Amino acid sequence: MERKELEARVIELVAIAYSRDAMELSVETNFKEDLSGASIQMVSLVADIENELDVMIALQDASACDTIGALVDKIEEEM
Question: Is the pTM for the entire model greater than 0.85?
């Protein structure tokens, strides 16, 4: 999967987990500042990533990512 395709898919998954419009999100979107979600939303996002992209990513690794772009980087490392 190419980087742009992966970014688009992760943005879709973030939009679902955080109940946001994917059009409002980008790789620069900050989880804490822009989305201010609960930890349960990150748990849901990690589960969706594992199911949809067939990539195992630790919750603590995903939670350590400040932005969607950083999360995409982490996913690429595991692919």
Answer: yes
